[in-house]
Each structure stands twice: as C-alpha cells, then as structure tokens.
Amino acid sequence: MSDPGFSKIAIDGLWKNNPALVQVLGLCPMLAVTGTLVNGWVMGFATTMVLVGSNVTISMVRNIIPREIRIPIFVILIASFVTNVQLLMNAFVYDVYIILGIFIPLIVTNCIIIGRAEAFASRHGIWASFVDAMMQGIGFSAVLMVLGGMREIISQGTLFAGAENVFGEWAKVLKITLFHTDNHFLFAMLPPGAFIGLGLLIALKNYLDQRQLEKEKMTVSEPVKNVELA
C-alpha cells in the first residue's frame, strides 16, 4: 500500500483524526491520571514512546508476520516496549512512576497503540509509520495536558505542580499559583470531572470544525454568486 503524504498524516493525528477527541480512545489514562498537567504530559510522553517503537518495529516486520497471528504478535511487541518504558520511569522518575502506578503497564491495552499497529503500521512503510506514531502521540498528549491543566486549575488553582518530580528540584520554580484555596475542588480531581472536561473539549473541537466548514462553504459559494451576477 502506498504511503499517504506526511502532511495528511500530521493533520489527521493532531486534529482531524485525533485519538482522544475523535476516536475517543485511551479513556482509562485520560480519566484517571490527568489530575495535573505534569501527570498528563508524562503519561502522554510514555504512550508516544511506546507508540513510536511499536509502529516502527511492526512496519519493519509486517511482511513476515502471518496474518492469522498478527494481533498476538503486535501485543507481544507492544508489551516489550511498555516494559522498557516502565523500567526507565522506575529508574529515572520514580516519584511520577509511583503516582501513575498501574496505568503505565496498562499502556499495553491502550486501543490507540494496537489500533495504529493494525490500521497503519502493518500496511505502510517505516517513515510513514514513524510520522503517524509521532503525530498520533502528540495529539493524544496534547489532550492529556490540556485536560490535566484544566483539572489542576479548577481543583488546586495551580499549573505545573509536581514538575520537580520529573525535572529535578530546580523545576519547583515552574509552578504557577493562579489562586489560593484552602479546600480543593474534589469533583474536578475525580474521574467524573475528567469525563465532563473531555466532553467540553470534544464539543469545542466540533464547534471549531463546524465553523471551518461553514467558512469553506461561503468561500465556494461567493465565486458562484459573482458569476451569476456577471
């Protein structure tokens, strides 16, 4: 199968076919670990690394994998990359690793990764699969970060809390306090709050897409009107 253009792959992953806002995949980490912007970024980064590794590897061996057993092989490859990422996080960002807990190994079951392996990497070349993985991962990570930032602001009044757990003690200066509160808004910190926040982001995307579609229709109709008047 011929590879699609890189620009189309990028637009699909970042916006038109965003795994979180359009495909609505990866709900488990989105609802569970996006209590802060930093946690969302770390989970998105880990998912992207697994996605890139699995996509590229599957694309490399796609012609020698029997179709009858391709899904079990995909899962084994994905699990191998998840294990590597889990060990690296355990070694270098232990505090964040403890916070994210079981959701790191659960990346194995993330439908985004197995979905891209089956729908794209198993049918396209290495470079196209790499770009697809990067764009899908960045699109997913962006949604996790925005959702985590929203929840962190509403519940705690801060941004970048816990950055020192990832980047070291110097990163404490990155924390931004927007307002002080004695009691955190618990609903925003719980998964139901994340579910509502995700729904608002999906609604915003649909609204922007509708506005863009209306602009395109107006752009097309104006030359037709001018021709009729002439």
Task: Describe the 3D structure.
The chain is an all-alpha fold. The protein has one domain (6-229). It has 10 helices and 2 strands. It has a two-stranded antiparallel ribbon with strand order 1-2. The longest helix is centred in the last third of the chain and has 39 residues, at 191-229. The chain starts with 5 loop residues before the first helix and ends with a helix.
The structural domain count equals: 1
Alpha-carbon distance between the termini? 47 Å
Radius of gyration: 20 Å
Shape: globular
Record the strand order, biggest sheet: 1-2
- Stretches where pLDDT is under 50 for at least 5 consecutive residues are none
- Compute the number of strand runs: 2
Strand content: under 5%
Q: Could you describe the largest sheet, including whether it forms a barrel?
A: 2 strands, antiparallel
Pattern of helices and strands: HHHHHHHEHEHH
Average pLDDT confidence is: 91
The helix content, as a percent range, equals: over 70%
Number of helices: 10
Structural class: mainly alpha
